[in-house]
Specification:
The protein has 221 residues and is α/β, with parallel strands linked by helices. It contains 6 helices and 8 strands. The strands form 2 sheets. The chain has a 6-stranded parallel beta sheet, with helices on one face. Strands 1-2 form a two-stranded antiparallel sheet.
Length: 221
């Protein structure tokens, strides 16, 4: 990927990152309320997504949400490294990624995390999400209605096997926080009862067509 000769900050065309509202996590760390996602592999190339992140960083975005299944972490990582060399402090960034469904087995979790770190050219992630609470395979490019023959319903014991590997990653300094994603209130209650390190955030779909007010209120308590 060909990047511009220099990384230039353009606060006049964007926002001062220090003016962006922050949410405080239970650890005391803060996360910007406004960020950029990197999903787009159904319509845009990895290079196009990476260049959108490049532009976002130039105008003040500091929260970047990634995932291995998006297929563009190598390109996004090139931009992150370039921006940090160009003057964006690592501690000013909040970078997340996600563990995909076919990497839930305990022996696969840390290798998957380390691959994302290598691709993103980072020493640690600010948060690492379990993308979905199910073990199955969803091949790249598969249609939305495709189903894995080995897919199984939610199994809390298996989920906790995966989650405990992320707790080890926190202890090892590879990630700062654990995140959940695409969960339900019942699954979250089970997790909170059994985990050693509480999740710091839950990534959920929330809009007028899917508001989930009860679950949202539960998470905010």
């Amino acid at each position: 990927m060909i990047l511009p000769e220099a990384f230039e900050l353009h606060p006049a065309d964007g926002v001062d990152p220090h003016d962006v509202p922050q949410r405080k996590l239970y650890t005391g760390a803060t996360i910007p309320c406004i960020g950029q996602g990197t999903f787009g592999n159904d319509r845009f190339t990895p290079e196009e997504i990476a260049m959108s992140i490049f532009g976002g960083l130039e105008v003040g975005y500091r929260f970047i949400d990634c995932a291995s299944v998006y297929g563009n972490e190598i390109e996004v990582g090139e931009v992150l490294e370039y921006a940090m060399k160009g003057g964006v402090p690592r501690q000013e960034l909040f970078i997340t990624s996600k563990l995909w469904n076919d990497q839930h087995r305990p022996e696969k979790v840390l290798p998957a995390l380390k691959q994302s770190l290598m691709d993103l050219r980072l020493d640690y992630l600010d948060m690492y999400f379990i993308h979905w609470p199910f073990r199955n395979t969803h091949a790249p490019g598969a249609s939305h209605d495709s189903r894995s023959p080995d897919a199984r319903p939610y199994n809390h014991s298996l989920y906790m096997e995966t989650y405990s590997e992320l707790e080890k990653a926190v202890a090892g300094g590879l990630i700062r926080h654990i995140g959940t994603s695409n969960m339900t209130q019942a699954k979250t209650a089970l997790l909170l009862k059994d985990c050693t390190i509480r999740p710091a955030a839950n990534q959920m779909e929330m809009h007028p067509c899917l508001a989930e007010p009860e679950f949202f209120s539960y998470l905010m308590e």
